[in-house]
Amino acid sequence: MVARDPHRFVNELDEAALERLAARLESRAQDKVFARLLDKYVTRLALPPLARVLEVGCGTGAVLRSLVRRSDFTGKALGVDQCGHFIDAANTFAQAEGVGDRLTFQVGDAHCLDFPPATFDVVIAHTLISHVTEPLAVLGEMARLVRPGGTVVVFDGDYASLTYAYPDHGFGHRMDVALASSTFNNPRIMRDLPRLLPELGLRLETAWGEAVVEIGSASFFRSFAETYVPYVKKAGLLPAQAVEAWHNEQRQAMENGTFFAACNYYTYIARRV
Ligand SMILES: C[S@@+](CC[C@H](N)C(=O)[O-])C[C@H]1O[C@@H](n2cnc3c(N)ncnc32)[C@H](O)[C@@H]1O
């Protein structure tokens, strides 16, 4: 068996698996720590009221819903995702939250989109680049679609830094690696952006990193483990019983207040030259 990033191969998943991933995207968007990371870069974008905004790999639309709820942004935004199931969900959520008139969602492949060059003022990839087949091609497409002087934002985790505490350090490390490699096609890609962005005509304006850390209790990493441990088992990278024991230990630690997990996240804001 081989590891297959579920978001990369999302169109091969069954309905139940899609529902679980959609639920994870929505619960993650509610998470206070994660919401703060999004807010931090959106605040710095200083969006003109009528900015044309594109999010590639928009999933269920949680990022764009959050964007159009801001009082300092009155424009409209477009979200594109390869998964029709997520696009349907994005439309339903946007209507239900009363922002359907400001958001459009459509199916598309971020490697090759059907818009003319320089169509958008801002192009965002929020936890997309770690999943795609060819990160350089997707970044190149983002650079093509943003107007000269416009802004590209790439936000994602450095999943080589993902770690859960586990009493057996050796197995804990193997499990960290298995979780990253069965869930992310490009777990280390965020380290490459300072080199890749200039090659694509994108001048790095600012970048920063933050650790998402949960000690004692868990919400972000609870849902992460519930969603992605099944993919570690499916990939067959480690013995299924040992993976189950690891997961039980994590659940126990969450109950006991002895939990620890962390992962670094990075934001790059670049300007099209
Ligand atoms: C982790 S989710 C992020 C969703 C959304 N940006 C958010 O933060 O809620 C990654 C998304 O990327 C999408 N995706 C992966 N590869 C893609 C591609 N080549 N083109 C378009 N979407 C893609 C998946 O379908 C999934 O919805």
Description:
The protein has about 270 residues and is of the alpha/beta class. The protein has a domain at about 10-160 and about 185-210 and about 265-270: Rossmann fold, CATH 3.40.50.150. Helices cover about 40% and strands about 25% of the residues. The protein contains 9 helices and 7 strands; from the N terminus they run ααβαβαββαβααβααβ. It has helices at about 15-30, 30-45, 60-70, 85-95, 135-145, 170-185, 195-200, 220-235, 240-255, and strands at about 55, 75-80, 105, 120-125, 145-165, 200-215, 260-270. The protein has a 7-stranded mixed beta sheet with strand order 3-2-1-4-5-7-6, sandwiched between helices. β1 (about 55), α3 (about 60-70) and β2 form a beta-alpha-beta unit. α6 (about 170-185) packs across α8 (about 220-235) and α8 packs antiparallel against α9 (about 240-255). The longest helix has 17 residues, at about 240-255. The mean pLDDT is about 95. S-adenosylmethionine (SAM) binds near residues 8, 59, 86, 111 and 128.
